[in-house]
Design a protein that fits this description.
Blueprint: H1 11-39, H2 53-62, E1 67-73, H3 78-91, E2 98-102, E3 105-112, E4 115-122, E5 127-132, H4 136-143, E6 148-151, E7 153-154, E8 157-158, H5 163-170, H6 176-187, E9 197-200, E10 209-216, E11 221-228, E12 231-238, E13 242-244
Antiparallel strand pairs: 1-5, 1-6, 2-5, 3-4, 7-8, 9-10, 9-13, 10-11, 11-12
């Protein structure tokens, strides 16, 4: 049986050094992966968003054809109008000009039977959003749709929404994980203190001085004491409804 050839000219040492270097590189890569994974969650294991969802949504908008326009519709018939526009787009062969129709909604919580129930609520009752290339033909196709009463803006030149306006109306709502992580981040940077004097900036008590009595970081709300007719009255306000003195 032939013997395995022996390394010559110090190649055995070089092989060991190469193996050591490769092992160190692998350990470094593994460490970086673990650090990246750790950075993606907080101390409680909640996933943290690594990309601003609003900015990501705006980036997607920039890559889409057409612009967004707002049309008037009969209140309560927004979804019917959406279906009507989509049907006319197909029947009039306007797919290359009318791309998308949306009824903006957001989630609100209602109490039914003693339980919290999330429901979808229209953001702009009586309005529908359409993404389209505006031409005389596409304008007429939308304007003459049953249930549509007109475009927002000048009758002959509707006003297109900008990216911020579209994002505010149509951006996906944050998931519960993102809401929780965001609330924790806010909680860690709360700048108010119990007993601190503030000025109410919004609502019926605007401009009145108050003192902070309770802080709820996760809901971003404060309970403040406002002096009304010589008596301190507790009022619940959002962080952005008060200002430091």
């Amino acid at each position: 049986m032939s013997e395995s050839p022996l390394p010559v000219d110090g190649s055995h040492d070089e092989h060991d050094e190469w193996e050591a270097d490769t092992t160190e590189e692998a350990e470094e890569v593994e460490s970086e992966v673990e650090e990246a994974a750790d950075a993606a969650v907080d101390e409680d294991g909640d996933v943290l968003p690594d990309v601003d969802p609003i900015e990501e949504f705006k980036r997607q908008l920039r890559g889409q054809f057409g612009e967004w326009y707002v049309i008037h519709s009969y209140a309560g018939y927004e979804n019917r109008v959406k279906q009507n526009i989509e049907s006319r787009t197909g029947s009039l062969n306007m797919e290359d000009f009318i791309f998308q129709v949306e009824v903006p909604t957001h989630t609100v919580t209602e109490f039914k039977g003693g339980k919290k129930t999330p429901i979808k609520e229209r953001v702009l009752p009586g309005y529908v959003l359409v993404r389209m290339d505006l031409t005389d033909e596409s304008w007429a196709a939308v304007r003459n749709t049953p249930g549509v009463t007109g475009f927002v803006g000048l009758s002959n030149k509707p006003s297109a929404l900008n990216l911020d306006e579209v994002a505010k109306l149509l951006a996906p709502e944050p998931t519960e994980e993102v809401k929780k992580a965001s609330a924790k981040a806010t909680a860690s940077t709360v700048e108010f203190e119990i007993g601190e004097s503030v000025t109410v900036m919004d609502g019926p008590f605007a401009t009145l001085p108050a003192s902070v009595s309770e802080i709820s970081p996760e809901s971003q709300k404060l309970k403040v004491l406002v002096s009304i007719f010589g008596r301190e009255t507790p009022v619940e306000l959002s962080f952005n409804q008060v200002s430091k003195i």
